[in-house]
Each structure stands twice: as structure tokens, then as C-alpha cells.
Design goal:
Two copies of one chain form a homodimer. The mean pLDDT of chain A is 96. Chain A folds into two domains: 3-108 and 275-291, Nucleotidyltransferase, domain 5, CATH 3.30.420.40; 120-270, Nucleotidyltransferase, domain 5. Chain A is an alpha/beta fold. In chain A, helix 1 (35-47) packs parallel to helix 2 and helix 6 crosses helix 7 (240-252). Chain A contains nine helices and twelve strands. The first copy, chain A, has helices spanning 35-47, 88-96, 105-116, 178-182, 184-191, 202-223, 240-252, 265-268, 278-291, and strands spanning 3-8, 12-20, 23-31, 54-59, 74-75, 86-87, 100-104, 125-130, 134-140, 143-144, 228-231, 269-270. In chain A, 57% of the residues are buried. Chain A has a five-stranded mixed beta sheet with strand order 3-2-1-4-7, sandwiched between helices. Chain A has a five-stranded mixed beta sheet with strand order 10-9-8-11-12, with helices on both faces. In chain A, 34% of the residues lie in helices and 20% in strands. Chain A starts with a strand and ends with a helix. At the A-B interface, strand 9 and helix 6 of A face strand 9 and helix 6 of B.
Chain lengths: 295, 295
């Protein structure tokens, strides 16, 4: 059985067909424009790439993943212009007439890493992306976590020392929440340049590591993950992950009595084994679980 | 079958025998002194109160709940004098020769509320206590959450506006973490009086509600609970829970698209249905699950 997968991000969509990391049969990436055009391109791609058993869709959020809800399948309160209340599942299902499994982009990525990557064998771990925005997916007790809606790591509140960093933050809802202070968009607006043009500026990455680590500390205190997988475009700065690990260990301050957070932190906070394909590959797995009646 | 339950808190221990809220056959409460004396009093209570099938022990933490660990059954890095590295399970088992199930006090309370209280029918929710310290228990996807160790809500980092509140916080590990700013101990040291003597002072409770709500917002962003059950001695101040609810709704700022956090907040953030017996009753349930091989 061949599956379709969509990583529907706020910046770009990745669509693929296949069965896993060693068997990606077709893949396309295109920018996220308006809903009609973007969903249309995805539908065209799947219509012209063979017979599929189902499609998994991992979407930027917040989304409604509650099957019993009248608004199931929608992107809900996103600040992204034109996308609030988009019924992305209905639009794709109408175009393709295929079973469709729907979750957040980061829950899909967590599922991909669980099946084929850094989450293999773990029952409680997180996948976090620091890109244009910040999002987090969670597997808890062996299943993706939804609860009331789904995790929204990007909107945690973290300490913000305005004397050291007077920047107000970029979140249109919360100002200086986690995403408001530490996303790629926050970096670009704080320093006046995109992250990739700031590679040589240590101040940028020290501050970024401080913020990223504060959010991870809160994830550790709430979810107690067995591992944290952290990806996204901002993490492509090579100095950042080692700085984040060091800051998390310092913030823990020996409290948790877990060697993983101290001596083993290089193995505790890790890059995605599937790289930037975790989301779209996880969407295959989402589709497979739907076909097998396991969702 | 009659069970024994212990809520082993940092301030007091509650020991009981019975089968549930309607059938508490004996109950005793005593202050937490040194480990030998405290555990001895618990052992004496159970030895003289009939034949028990098993004992459930919900303990203050951090504790080692990993069955495969050589230090399973211990209280680990607690700052409480004399209690670090106490093997509380071994001490009780040696004295009583009964099966013993071990978890955090707040996970036990979550279990109690799940069986008989405000968590009934939910598969993902939190129990949080704001008392001398702050702790959180989590049921995620229908099971108590442990992960790497177990949730430690009290040590999240939250915004701290030192201009408005110059108090440094009381956590010996982290200073102004959640517990450092918002626990009963923090209130007592910030204002120079215990919480119960500050009932009429609005400033105290406005600030407290701000901090409590910031932590709950981070719990919502990470765990996405279907409900938050909040207890503990500090919450006995009657004005506090309504203030906390209002602040959480304000902090969410309409982002989550979940009516529960806005219109339904009175039913979303609630006091424990079992009151201050959630922990000890949950310990009965912990014992029952152990006997039934369900842990």
C-alpha cells in the first residue's frame, strides 16, 4: 500500500507519496499561498501520482482534531492571513475521495520520529520545531497527545528580561510568549535580518539559546519527556543546539535527579533523525494508522 | 479487599484504610518529621488497622518511579532536610510485608479524581496542588504520566516582573521558578505572614492569581488537558480560584479556539471533587491497580 503525506506548514507545504524514508516515490514542495491555490496544488500532486490507500495530513495550527466536533478538519484561529477557519480536510477529501487522517504538523513529525527516528522505542517524548513559528508535538504513554485541543508549545509564557532584551515579541495574540520571543520571525524582527544572515553574531545565538532552553525546561517540568527532538529552520545554526543543551542543564540545576539532563544531555536533546522530512514521513504513518484503524 | 493509602506530603502525611470515598475505615494525619519517625508512624498505623491487600503510596518528590531503576522507591533530590535519597518503599515494605504501589502524591490525587471526582471520564487532565510547594500530576491518554521521571510543575520558569514584585523567590534550586514565586512558602516569605493571615489583602491574591495562571497557561500549552483540577492549601482562599480563571482566559487571549477556556472556564479549572482527600483516596486506587496488575 502506498500512502500520501502532507506537511502543511505556514510557510511551505511538502507533499509526498511512498511508504517510508527509504521509499519516497514522489515529493514536491511549494510555498503556502492562499488556501484555494495551496490545497489545489496538493490535490493535483496526489491525483497525478498513482493509487493511494490514504492521505495523512499534518497541518500548522491550531486545528480541530476532535472527530466528534462539527468543525473537525479545520485550521481554526491561526493569525495567518486568509487561513482562519479553513476546512482543509473537506477541501482535500472533496478533490481526492480518499481516506484522510488529520493531525498537527508537529504531531505528525513526532509520529515519523517514533516509527523511524529519534523517538523509536520511547513512549513519551516530544518533537519541537523552531522555525518561522514554534510548535510542539507530543507522544504520551505511546499515543499522540491531543487532550482538549493539542499541544501549542509556542504560546507558553517564559521569563523575558526586558533590560537585556527590550524587544516586545512578535506574537499577534500574546506578544512575548515563547514563539513571540524565540521563533525565526522574532529573530528576524529583533535583529533586522533573517537568522541565516546572523550566523557569525554570538549575541544572537546566546539569547536564542536562553529562550529555547527556557521553553524546553517547561516541557520537561510538565510532560517529562524521555527525549526531546528539536528541529526547524532556526536550529540549522550549528552553534545553537550545543548552547541549548548547556542552558537546559544549567536551568535544571541538578534538581531532577535524572542523569539524562546532565551527563547525557547530548543524547537527551537531539536533532530529528529524519531531518526536515520528519513531518511528511510522519504523515505517511498517520495515513497507515488510519487505514489500519489504529487512530 | 481493603487497601491502605498514604499521601506522603512534605508537611504532613495522611494514612488511611478503606476502599473509596464512602468507605474510609480509618484515617490518621501527622506531621512530616524525620524519615525514621514518619515512616514508622505510617507502618504502625497500617499494622494495627486490619488485613490489607496492598498499600498505595503517593509521595512528595522528586521520586524514582522507574521499576527497572536501582533506586526505584526512593525520594531523590528533595531539598527537604533529611529526606534526600530516602528509600521510603523499602522502609515500609520491610515493616509491613505487603505489596506497595508507588507514585507521586499528585499523580495519586489525579488517579483519585479520575476514579471518583472531577477527572471522571477524561483521559487527559491534570491535578495541581498549590500548597507549601507546587506539584502537578498528569493523566495522559488514560494513564498516569511518568516519562523520564514524572511531571514537576513547580519548577517551570514563568515571567517575573521584578519591578512589580522584587521578591527573589524561595526555591533553593531555581529561585523564582513557579513554586519559588507562587507556593504558600513564597507567599509567607514575600509578605511576612502565612497565607491564611492575608485573606483581606487584595494585592496578595491578585499577584498570586497572576502567577498561578501563568503556570496553568504553560500546562495548557504543553499537555492540553481536558480539565485542570487545582487544590492545595493556598487555594483555600475563596477569592483565588475565580481570579485564576479570569487570568487564564485573559492570558489565552482567544488563541486556542476552545470554548472551554473562555465561556466554560468555571468548569475547566475546578477544585478537587474529593477535596483534601484526593491524594489518600487516589492511593487506595493505586493499590487496587497494583493488585489487579494494571500498573
Amino acid at each position: 500500500m502506498i500512502y500520501g503525506g502532507v506537511e502543511a506548514g505556514g510557510t511551505k507545504w511538502v507533499c509526498a507519496t511512498g511508504t517510508g524514508p527509504e521509499d519516497v516515490q514522489a515529493l514536491v514542495t511549494f510555498p503556502t499561498t492562499d488556501p484555494g491555490e495551496t490545497i489545489g496544488r496538493a490535490a493535483d500532486f496526489f491525483a497525478s501520482n498513482g493509487t493511494l490507500a490514504a492521505i495523512g495530513l499534518g497541518s500548522f495550527g491550531p486545528i480541530d482534531v476532535k472527530r466528534s466536533s462539527p468543525t473537525w478538519g479545520r485550521i481554526t484561529t491561526t493569525p495567518k492571513p486568509g487561513w482562519a477557519d479553513t476546512d482543509v480536510v473537506a477541501a482535500l477529501t472533496d478533490a481526492l475521495d480518499l481516506p484522510l487522517a488529520f493531525d498537527t504538523d508537529v504531531n505528525a513529525a513526532a509520529l515519523g520520529e517514533h516509527r523511524w527516528g529519534a523517538g523509536a522505542g520511547l513512549d513519551t517524548f516530544c518533537y519541537i520545531t523552531v522555525g518561522t513559528g514554534i510548535g510542539g508535538g507530543v507522544m504520551a504513554n505511546g499515543k499522540l497527545l491531543h487532550g482538549l485541543i493539542h499541544p501549542e508549545f509556542g504560546h507558553m509564557r517564559i521569563p523575558h528580561d526586558r533590560a537585556a532584551d527590550p524587544f516586545d515579541g512578535v506574537c499577534p495574540y500574546h506578544g512575548d510568549c515563547y514563539e513571540g520571543l524565540a521563533s525565526g520571525d522574532a529573530i528576524r524582527r529583533r535583529w533586522g535580518k533573517p537568522p541565516e544572515e546572523l550566523a557569525g553574531d554570538e549575541r544572537v545565538w546566546e539569547l536564542e539559546a536562553d529562550y529555547v532552553a527556557l521553553g524546553l525546561m517547561n516541557v520537561i517540568c510538565t510532560i517529562s519527556p524521555q527525549r526531546i527532538v528539536i528541529g526547524g529552520g532556526v536550529m540549522n545554526q550549528p552553534s545553537l543546539l550545543p548552547l541549548v543543551r548547556r542552558r537546559v542543564t544549567a536551568l535544571a540545576a541538578g534538581y531532577f535527579g535524572a542523569a539524562e539532563i546532565v551527563d547525557g544531555v547530548d543524547d537527551y536533546i537531539v536533532a530529528p533523525a529524519l531531518g526536515d522530512r520528519a513531518g511528511v514521513l510522519g504523515a505517511f504513518e498517520l495515513a497507515r494508522l488510519a487505514v489500519d484503524g489504529m487512530l
